[in-house]
């Protein structure tokens, strides 16, 4: 208490954390400058940076008119560097050392403890530093002078030798072929100083524009050193609990940390794991376990964890296979790594493992020989892929190690549908890389299972039947109540009907849900990660479009304004990509049928073009349906309509016929380049 009375608080200063220049603010430490280069008259001629290495190079002008500058020494240095000739490659074009280059080096590896502070009007604003760089003079011009001196000496020696002496210097050489590089030799080469220097030299310089101290742009940037908002939400980093603040003031000593038992480098306790951010926890768990149901993942993360946040994080490091989460291939095989068995780069391993995961989305069983034949990888790599997510069965193949998680699929249909969209994109990439045939895309029937049926006892059959009856009873009761309520509402509406009601006639038939898969044969087999969407809602009689129809109309309008002509197949593919970019629970996830999509296309001003395709065409029915935006409001409307009329009569048309028809209908002579431009603008998505 006595010490506190002797040292009273004079002033309290509010501290704010400015985040506008976070990860952008560097501190440059200049050397002591000579008298000929004062702080006021320094001019930055150029500046460039290598962002990955955090290396900066500045070129500053020297005041040659300063009385402290030695002119004869500057002329001598320029003569040694550039010689007597002056051209564009000369370092000193004025034949005088009038500039100097400074190169940077990192002053500290960990700069998280440092910040730039600005005090203004009783407030202290802190901006964390991203790097501290020390600038030192660069003497590369001396190396250039030495190189020119050696070139002159070599030229003089070469002039004295005769042609006969050159012919006598012919020597026998031995051609040797290098051995295949082992993994250990490759690691030693990668860690060598020469390799690191080569990697650093390969990074390109990024040229910067320097603004002076009194420049308006510099004044504008300095304003970012002040916190933009003074609310508590902007400065949560400065709010700590008493225990956290005490831990920051008095961290545990090194001796106490050394007393703890040492664990292997790849082992992390659950207590240490829960101190990490949620995303890192999920990534570490998935990387170690590789395959996990969502319920098990939630139990490992502890109580109180938000399931929505877990779902958002797990989709970044894992993919859904049969209702279970399997870690992504790029997490197990990061970039710039290779296989320990064959030395194959990580990109090839990721494609092969993605093919195995995709096969398990189609079927419970995978044959190892088939995977090796498609991926062309060594047997050890293929075995590693299969051991990550399946179990070997004698005379059957490899079976996915976990049962189908039907509970997760029912509870999270939006997540399941989004994962199905991702698998469609992965399948398209695999088809291009591996040239997959139809037999690879179609799942095989389980002949082995049908030949060897499971033995079920009588008691088990009775219990299964009772459970099924209980499950169906609740659903039947709900359907009955719903039908009863609909009958009552129909009777009431019939008694109070209005006389002049126009009934919209629709063709009879059952409206099928839209097939949202690019290859229905490979995905719609009961094990794909998706749910069959329900039929979309019909248009209400009052004329107002529901939210689903409004969203669908906005998508169709924006799509046809970008690509004026589309087939139904391409439109469905773009719609699937649009669904994958939407957040969970969006109204479009309620289900859009083919008929709804085609009706909306016609309602937005588009027309169906009946192109006379040949009968022997191999195109699918959706690829034969062509829709076009008739009037887009641009300068090519008339040309586009003429082209559509041409292609509605003929499947193949010569360019000169198109050119003559456009000239006749539009009344202007178009050359070949203008015709190509019209075709490209009008049919960019098809031709």
TrEMBL record:
- Polar residues bias spans: 517-527
Q: Which InterPro entries match?
A: RNA_pol_III_Rpc5, RPC5_C
The record lists the membrane-crossing segments as: none
**What GO biological process term is on the record, naming one?**
tRNA transcription by RNA polymerase III
| Protein name in UniProt | RPC5 polymerase
GO CC entries: RNA polymerase III complex
Ranges for domain DNA-directed RNA polymerase III subunit RPC5 C-terminal: 444-685
**Compositionally biased, Basic and acidic residues: which spans?**
146-155
PANTHER family, per the entry = DNA-DIRECTED RNA POLYMERASE III SUBUNIT RPC5 (PTHR12069:SF0), DNA-DIRECTED RNA POLYMERASES III 80 KDA POLYPEPTIDE RNA POLYMERASE III SUBUNIT 5 (PTHR12069)
Disordered: annotated segments: 146-169, 512-540
Q: Name the lineage.
A: Eukaryota, Metazoa, Chordata, Craniata, Vertebrata
Cross-referenced Pfam families, in alphabetical order? Answer: RPC5 (PF04801), RPC5_C (PF19725)
């Amino acid at each position: 208490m006595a010490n506190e009375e002797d040292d009273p608080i004079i002033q309290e200063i509010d501290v704010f954390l400015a985040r506008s220049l976070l990860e952008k603010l560097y501190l440059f430490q200049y050397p002591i400058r000579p008298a000929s280069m004062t702080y006021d008259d320094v001019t930055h001629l150029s500046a460039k940076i290598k962002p990955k290495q955090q290396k900066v190079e500045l070129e500053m002008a020297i005041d040659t008119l300063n009385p402290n500058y030695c002119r004869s020494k500057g002329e001598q240095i320029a003569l040694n560097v550039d010689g007597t000739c002056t051209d564009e490659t000369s370092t000193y074009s004025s034949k005088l050392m009038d500039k100097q280059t400074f190169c940077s080096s990192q002053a500290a590896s960990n700069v998280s403890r440092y910040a730039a502070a600005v005090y203004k009007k009783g407030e202290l604003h802190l901006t964390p530093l991203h790097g501290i760089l020390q600038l030192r003079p660069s003497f590369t011009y001396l190396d250039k002078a030495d190189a020119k001196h050696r070139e002159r000496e070599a030229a003089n020696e070469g002039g004295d030798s005769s042609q006969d002496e050159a012919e006598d210097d012919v020597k026998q050489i031995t051609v040797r072929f290098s051995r295949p590089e082992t993994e250990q030799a490759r690691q030693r080469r990668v860690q060598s100083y020469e390799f690191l220097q080569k990697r650093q030299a390969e990074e390109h310089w990024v040229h910067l524009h320097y603004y002076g101290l009194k420049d308006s742009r510099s004044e504008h940037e300095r304003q970012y050193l002040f916190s933009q908002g003074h609310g508590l939400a902007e400065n949560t980093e400065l709010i700590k609990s008493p225990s956290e603040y005490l831990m920051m003031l008095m961290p545990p000593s090194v001796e106490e940390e050394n007393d703890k038992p040492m664990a292997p480098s790849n082992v992390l306790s659950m207590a240490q794991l829960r101190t990490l951010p949620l995303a890192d926890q999920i990534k570490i768990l998935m990387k170690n376990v590789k395959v996990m149901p969502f319920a098990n993942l939630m139990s490992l993360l502890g109580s109180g964890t938000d399931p929505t946040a877990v779902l958002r994080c797990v989709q970044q490091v894992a993919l859904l296979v049969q209702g279970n989460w399997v870690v992504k291939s790029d997490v197990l095989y990061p970039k710039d790594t290779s296989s320990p068995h064959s030395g194959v780069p990580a990109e090839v391993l990721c494609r092969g493992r993605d093919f195995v995961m995709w096969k398990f989305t189609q079927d419970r069983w995978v044959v190892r020989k088939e995977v090796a034949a498609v991926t062309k990888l060594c047997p050890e790599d293929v075995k590693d892929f299969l051991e990550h997510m399946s179990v070997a069965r004698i005379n059957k193949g490899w079976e996915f190690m976990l049962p189908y998680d039907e509970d997760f699929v029912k509870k999270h249909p939006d997540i399941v549908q989004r994962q199905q969209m991702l698998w469609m994109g992965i399948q398209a990439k695999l088809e291009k890389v591996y040239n997959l045939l139809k037999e690879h895309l179609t799942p095989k029937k389980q002949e082995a299972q049908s030949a060897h049926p499971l033995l079920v006892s009588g008691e088990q059959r009775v219990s299964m039947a009772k459970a099924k009856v209980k499950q169906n009873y609740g659903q039947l009761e709900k359907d009955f109540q719903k039908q009863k309520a609909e009958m009552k509402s129909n009777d009431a509406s019939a008694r109070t009907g209005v006389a002049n009601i126009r009934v919209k006639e629709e063709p009879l038939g059952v409206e099928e849900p839209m097939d949202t898969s690019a290859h229905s044969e490979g995905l719609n087999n009961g094990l794909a990660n998706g749910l069959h969407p329900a039929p979309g809602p019909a248009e209400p009689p009052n004329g107002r479009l529901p939210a689903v129809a409004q969203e669908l109309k906005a998508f169709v309008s924006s799509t046809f304004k970008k690509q004026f002509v589309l087939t139904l197949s391409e439109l469905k593919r773009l719609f699937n990509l649009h669904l994958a970019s939407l957040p969970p629970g969006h109204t479009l996830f309620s289900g859009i049928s083919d008929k709804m999509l085609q009706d909306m296309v016609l309602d937005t001003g588009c027309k169906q073009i009946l192109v006379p395709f040949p009968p022997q065409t191999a195109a699918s029915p959706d690829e034969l349906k062509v829709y076009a935006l008739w009037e887009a409001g641009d300068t090519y409307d008339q040309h586009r309509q003429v082209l559509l009329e041409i292609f509605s009569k003929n499947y193949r048309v010569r360019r000169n016929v198109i050119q003559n028809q456009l000239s006749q209908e539009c009344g202007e002579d178009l050359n070949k380049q203008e015709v190509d431009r019209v075709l490209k603008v009008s049919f960019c998505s098809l031709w």
